[in-house]
Each structure stands twice: as structure tokens, then as C-alpha cells.
Prior knowledge:
The protein is of the alpha+beta class. About 40% of the residues lie in helices and about 25% in strands.
Amino acid sequence: MTMDQCAAALTIRTVNDAAVVRSSFPLMAQLRPELADAAAWVSYWQRQSERGYRLAGLYVEDELKALAGYRIQENLVHGQFMYLDDLVTDVGARGQGHGEALVGFLRAEAERLGCNKLVLDTPLSNQLGHRFYFRCGLLATSLRFVEPIASAVARQ
């Protein structure tokens, strides 16, 4: 397949149907293995959607290859921004430009929605992810500090 044929077969669309979210579980589980099963993923998606969480999927010939979960937020540090919660490309489809295409879509969507920035967090240990984000034009500009709340830890 030529590059032009690949580009023609690639589509990015919003995911807003529980059945489609359920079917995306094997892909999301590659990023979030703590999700117990498809039902847990759908439940999470439903709760978070009520708080502005959105999904975009990259499809090649109607097969989901990459998925992004994001939301629009606002604070004094960034103004209005797009926060990228989740970004995953199927392990068998990595290195084909799908992640970069999805980041490009999100960048355009953030601009369309009046956002000042595209923001994400990634663990310090995610060195391959860091290289990918730098290639996509994202810069490391801060370090996040976290303290687990004891009562929340006890509930887990």
C-alpha cells in the first residue's frame, strides 16, 4: 500500500457511543492495564464524560489503531487548555505515524476550541514516550509533585 493509499484509509473521529468504547477496551488496556475489564472502562468513560472527557479514535480501514482521551480545562497557569489524559497506539501499529496524526488532530481541535496549550503528564520513567512527545513538538516545562491521600490509598 502506498503512502497516499494509507492516508486515504486513515480517519480520525470522535468516539461517543458506549458500544464503541467497549470495543476499544483491548487498546486502552495496553495503556491502562489497571482497568479490570471492558465494563470498568465503559464505567470510567461514562463518569468522566460527565466531566468533559472526550475520546478520539484513529482508524485505518475502520480498524481502531490509536485512541486519545482529552478534556478542555482552564486554570491560572495555562489559561484555557486541552489536557490529554490518555494517548495510546496499538502495539502492532506503532511506528506508522498514527500517534503523530492523532496529536496533530488534537492540536487542531485545541486551536478550534480556543485553547492556549496542549498539556499532558507522563511518568519520568516513560523515556520512549518522552522522545515521541518531543518529536511531536511538545516540550517538558514542569515537574508535577503528587502526594497520595491516605484515605484514598486505604480504599484501594
